[in-house]
Design a protein that fits this description.
Elements: H1 14-21, H2 42-47, H3 68-73, H4 80-95, H5 103-131, H6 134-141, H7 150-167, H8 173-210
Amino acid sequence: MSRPGQDGYRTPTVHDYEREREGGKPQDERPPDAKPATPPPLSAGLFSRQSPLLNLSKIDLHLERLHWRERIRHYTWTFFTVTMATGGIANVLYTVPLRFRGLDTIGVVFFLLNMLLFLINISMISLRFYTFPETFRASYMHPTERLFLPASVVSFGTILINISQYGLPNAGPWLGRAVTVLFWIDAALAVLSSSGIYLLMLVLSNSCKIVTCSVDGSVR
C-alpha cells in the first residue's frame, strides 16, 4: 500500500489487510486500467454475517499487558481537553441565571476537580518527557498531537477564570493582583503556542513539498 505522504494514500481498511493475507493486492495498488469494483449495498456490507464489523474472528487481536512506562509514553497533550471541559462546566454553573441553594457548591466542586486533573496532567506529561526525553520533540513534531499543545494553556486559562469567579469574592485583594499577573502570562503563552504551532505546520508542509523521500528512505 502507499505510505503516508505519497500520492493516492488513504487510510487502510480491514479489507486491505485481508487481501494482503490472502495474497491479493490492496485496493489502491490495482492496475490503473482496472475498472473499479461495484461496491456492495450498504445493508449487505454492514449487517451481513461476513462483515468484518460483526465477524471479529477474522481479525487477529494481540492484546498485551503494557508496562506502566509504556502507558506513560502514550500520555499526550490531548488529555488537557479534559481540564478544558471541566473548567468550562464550572464556568457555566457560575453564570446560570436561575440559581438555587447549592449551585455554587457544585461549581466549587468542579473547580477543585479541574485543578486536581490539571495537576495530574502536568505530572504525567512531565514524567513522560523525563522518562522518554525524545518524546518531547516528537510531541510537537507529530502532525496530530501538536494541535493539542495549546490545550494546556487554555486549561490554565479556565482555572484563572474559575479563580476570578469563585475565589475573588472570598479572598483579599492580593488574589486579584496575582490573577492579573497570571492572566498576562497565560495570554503570552497562548499567543506563542498557537502562532508557533501553525508556523511549525507551515514550515513542515513547505519542506515536505521541496524534499521528496523515497520508500527506502533516500532523499531525491
